[in-house]
Amino acid sequence: MHSYKNFTCNISVLHVNTAFRSVFEMTPNLSSSLAFFFIFFAFASGQNASTMQNTSTTTKTFTLYNHCKATIWPGIITKGDSGRGNGFTLNPGQTAFYTAPTGWSGRIWARTNCNFDKNGTGSCQTGSCGTSLNCSRPSSPPNTIAEFTLGDIDFYDVSLVDGFNLPIVVQPLNGKGNCSIAGCDGDVRNSCPSELSVRSDGKVIACRSACNVFDTDEYCCRGAYSDPVACVPSNYSRGFKQICPASSSYAFDGDATSIITCSASDYIVTFCASRNQTFCSYHDNKVICNDTRSGSKALLPQGWWNLMVTLPLAFILQTKI
C-alpha cells in the first residue's frame, strides 16, 4: 500500500428539497436537457460557485448524496490521523461536497440513528466514531465503508469487511482506466443471517461480519489463514458478495471487482443507492453524469431556455457551509 500524510480537507453542504433530488438521481428516461436545467437554475439562483467547483489539478471533490429515507451522519477520517476526523448531518436529499488533495487516503461511511446535542456530543446506533459529531476514531463495526487512496492512479472500494449498515455506491467521474462503479445492488440487511443480525425494536439495523461475530482465525484471515491462499470466502462473505458484487466482502477478497483503480477527477458517494442508478455532479463548470450504460459524460445546455420558460419553480436552494 501507500504511505500517508496528514491533510486539511474542506466540506460544504448543499441543502435540497425533494423536488431537487432528481438532479442527483436520474432515471434513464430523464433527458439531459432537463437535468441540466435544474442544476443550471440552482447555480443561477445564487449558489456560491467557490464551494462547488474543483478547478485545481491537485484536489479532488467527493459528492456525498443521501438517497436514504432517513437522516444520516457521514463520517470521514484520514488514514494516520483518525483522531481529527470530520462528521456532519445529512438529511434525506441533501448533498455535501468534500475536497481532498492528491495523496489523501481515508474512509467515508454513514452513521445511523444518531442523537447529538447542541455541542455535538452524542451517540449513534451504527458506524459510531466516538462521542462527538466530528469523528475522533475509526468507525465501530458493523458498517459499510468507502475507502480511497488518491494519486496519479486512484484506488477505491466499498468494504463489507467490517459488516454492513446501509448500501453505498461509489461512482468515478471523468476518469480513465477501469473506473467501474463500486458498491451494492441491494440491501444486505434484508437477508442477513440471524446470527449476524443487529436488531433494534425488532428491526435489522445492521449485519455483522463473520469475523466480528465468531472471531476465529479462519473468518478473520489471521494465524494459519493469514494469506490469500489459505483464507477463502465463507458462506457468509459469499452472501455479502451476492448482494454487493462490486465490494470487498472479506479481508483477502482480491477479485477484479473488489479494489478498483482509476484516474478520476471526482467521485460521487451515494448512500442507500444501487449501482444501476445514474447520478450527476458539478465539476469544472460542467454537469457530469455517470451513466452506467455509456460511462461519464458532460451535459450541454441545449434547449435550456425553453425549459426555463415552460417549467415552474420546483425547488428552493439553500447553502450552509
UniProtKB/TrEMBL annotation:
Any one cellular-component term (Gene Ontology): extracellular region
Domain of life: Eukaryota
Pfam (any one): Thaumatin
Chief localization: secreted
InterPro entries according to UniProt: Osmotin/thaumatin-like_sf, Thaumatin
CDD domains associated with the record: TLP-PA (cd09218)
Annotated S-S bridges: 68-272, 114-124, 129-135, 179-262, 184-244, 192-207, 211-220, 221-231
GO BP, sorted A to Z: defense response
Tagged with keyword Metal-binding: no
Subcellular location: Secreted
Gene3D superfamilies associated with the record: Thaumatin
Keywords in alphabetical order: Disulfide bond, Secreted
Family statement: Belongs to the thaumatin family.
This protein's name: Thaumatin-like protein
